[in-house]
Design goal:
Elements: H1 10-18, H2 20-44, H3 49-75, H4 87-95, H5 100-128, H6 133-159, H7 166-182
Helix pairs in contact: 2-3, 3-6, 4-5, 4-7, 5-6, 5-7
The structure holds fe (ii) ion (FE2) (2 copies).
């Protein structure tokens, strides 16, 4: 799925379902951070109209997912706690180059890969959860996050010649696969 180099192991679903409340709290935080990340693209790159318009939409959708998550969380009687670091995202951010076009290219590539990974994992959940509201919710997220993955790659295609990012895309896919293989499984999205 989405050229991801390593499949999420089936055991990840077991770990998540064993402590589903923790997973939901982490997932809610991921949606909030995804929205903030999309907004930050628009702040950092205000002179790219297509990028701004796309990321504004993404930010809205991620915020809507966050709103849906808060409904789920309060319905289950859960409370949000302090934000926890996301080792997967932190490892990816460390790979981001920081100069010129490379900075934006890496940000968009990492954005696309993270959306792809989220989609892969929601798909696993949607296939495992018993039929009902939550199962439908995760099935809807698969559609939405796959769209985010696609718009990320689309932006790269429109903004930069392929020679400037294709090899780096392959490299980051390999590195992301390695990160997923190395990190311990948690009751969390990543
Ligand atoms: Fe989302
Ligand atoms: Fe997304």
């Amino acid at each position: 799925m989405f050229n991801l180099r390593s499949e999420t192991p089936k055991e990840w679903v077991d770990v998540v379902l064993d402590d589903f409340d923790s997973f939901l709290l982490d997932h809610a935080a991921c949606e909030r951070k995804a929205s903030a990340n999309a907004v930050s693209f628009t702040v950092r790159y205000p002179n790219h109209p297509k990028l701004v318009q796309t990321m504004v939409r993404v930010a809205q959708e991620e915020m809507e997912h966050y709103a849906q998550m808060t409904d789920i969380i309060y319905k289950r009687g859960l409370q949000f706690g302090k934000d926890e670091k996301d080792p997967y995202i932190n490892a990816l951010i460390k790979l981001n180059r920081w100069e010129g076009d490379e900075r934006l290219i890496d940000r968009l590539l990492i954005f696309s890969i993270v959306e792809g990974r989220g989609c892969e994992r929601f798909h696993l959940l949607a296939n495992t959860l018993p039929q009902g509201e939550l199962q439908e919710f995760y099935a809807d997220l698969v559609r939405s996050e796959s769209q985010h993955h696609i718009v990320g790659v689309q932006l790269l295609k429109e903004m930069f010649p392929k020679e400037q990012w294709e090899a780096r895309y392959q490299e980051l896919l390999d590195l992301e696969g390695e990160i997923v293989r190395t990190l311990p499984l948690r009751a969390a999205l990543h």
